[in-house]
Amino acid sequence: MLSFQAFGQSDRGHVRQVNEDAFLIERLQNDADVGGSSLLAMVADGVGGHAQGDLASRESVRIIRDILAGGSFADGPQVLKKAVEEAHRHLVKLATDRQELAGMGTTCTVVWIGHSQAYVAQVGDSRAYLIRDRLAVQITEDQTLVQRLMKEGRITREEAAHHPQRNLILQALGLAESLEVELFHLPLKPHDRILLCTDGLHSLVNDSELAGATTEHKPPEAVENLISLAKARGGFDNITAVIVQEGSPEPDRSQTTTKEFEGLPLSTGEHAPGRSARPRIGPYLAPLLVILLGLALFLLLQ
Question: Is 63 a residue whose pLDDT tops 60?
Answer without folding.
Answer: yes
